[in-house]
Amino acid sequence: MLALLLRSLHSDTINLIYNNVGPFVSIHLRRLPWVWSFGKCDTQNHWPRLRDLHIHGELELDPDHHLPFVTLLAGMPKLRVLKLHLFMRRGADKRILQLWPKGYEGCFPWPDLDDLTMSFPSPEDQIYCHFPHTMRRLSLRCFPHHCFYLWETEMVNHLHLPVLYASEMLEIISKINAPHLDYLQLEYRADAAEGDFLDLLSRKFPRMTFLEIHRFHSPRASDATAHDIASQLAKLSHLKTLRANLDFEHTADWWSGNPNRVEIVEMLQQTAATLASTLAQQDVMLWLLRRVLSGATWVLFHPADRQDPARGLRMEIHRGGERMYVL
Questions:
Q1: In 3-state terms, what secondary structure has residue 189?
Q2: CA 46 – CA 102 distance, rounded (Å)
Q3: Mean predicted confidence (pLDDT) in 51-78
Q4: Which of 143, 150, 152, 299 lies deepest, with the highest CB count within 10 Å?
Q5: How far apart are the C-alpha atoms of 85 and 59, rounded to whole Å?
Q6: Domain extents for the chain?
Q7: Kind and range of the H or E element at 322?
């Protein structure tokens, strides 16, 4: 099926990297045609040396005929990296994004899988129980990020952007047995289970060095503060890099209008100070998501050169730091 898909795409819509020297094979599918439809699929995808598969684009599957991803990609036993940056239009059934649907019987097809990105994860997906113990990197996110639904409504209003509650994310994380995992991206809406969910991260992934967290307020949320969240994350004793996008009830309207307003910068500085002063490791590289006039960027913060002990830690934007556009 994948071979048929490759042959069906126009050369100007695909960025294909195919390196068949030695044991490594990598394929990146980007800027797919507006709709990528599997239709009635077969299982003739046999790429025994494929190690790295990235797929970006809109997905439209026929729920009555499509096969699960663990079947479609079963002929790739050496797969180590699988990144599925997929989005759907409103009205689509997000169950089609489940890699291992409930009731599916079979064997986990990628025993060497080390890095997985899943768009719109579901607690009903059975894939989490089958992760290799050696997995190192996992991303459970929306594509594009849910923040664009809040900030750039006209740009993404036609898309279906379901984001899980913390209680649903807790259900997912509880199924995973990957003690060596050191890189994690998460996106969720806060609810009463948020504290239990964040607490579970340190117990499930004690070696984590990189965490990216997108937290969105909801009517189900408790009155948790940035300090409360930082106190939970402080249990990650090996954390080296934290990227945080923390949305609270009192910040919901701050992002409207000019994103360069002084009060927004001050809010980010205060959040950075709260996180930095609470985390277990004082040398954590701390990035906060900042909306810009077109999109958003991660901004690096560091302690200000001049500190006033009476006022607590003061953080400022690292002017020479890297800024990364966020999708």
A1: strand
A2: 25
A3: 79
A4: 143
A5: 10
A6: 1-100, 133-327
A7: none
Taking the C-alpha atoms of residue 25 and residue 6, their distance in angstroms, rounded to an integer, is 15
What pLDDT sits at residue 19?
38
pLDDT in tens, 130-189: 999 999 999 999 887 777 777 766 666 656 567 899 999 999 999 999 999 999 999 999
Which one-letter DSSP state was computed for residue 43?
S
CB of 158 within 8 A of CB of 185? no
Residues 284-325: tens digit of each pLDDT: 999 998 887 767 888 899 887 777 777 778 878 887 555 555
Return the pLDDT at 17.
37
CB crowding 262-299: b at 16 or more within 10 Å, else e = eebeebbbebbbbbbebbeeeebbbbbbbbeeeebebb
In eight-state DSSP terms, residue 153 is H
Distance CA 117, CA 191 (A): 24
Torsion angle of C-alpha atoms 258, 260, 261, 264, degrees rounded to 10: 110
Closest by Cα among 149, 151, 86 to 119 = 86
Residue 18: burial class (beta carbons within 10 Å; 0-12, 13-18, 19+): exposed
Distance CA 222, CA 158 (A): 30
Cα 283 to its chain centre, rounded Å, is 24
The Cα–Cα gap between 56 and 44 comes to 22
Contacts 24+ apart (CB under 8 A), 32-37: 32/56, 32/57, 32/58, 33/9, 33/57, 34/58, 35/59, 35/60, 36/5, 36/60, 37/61, 37/62
pLDDT band at 190 (very low <50, low <70, confident <90, very high): very high
Q: Is 256 left (phi over 0), alpha (psi -120 to 50) or beta?
A: beta
pLDDT digits (tens, 9 = 90+) for 110-125: 999 999 999 889 999 9
Q: pTM for this structure?
A: 0.84
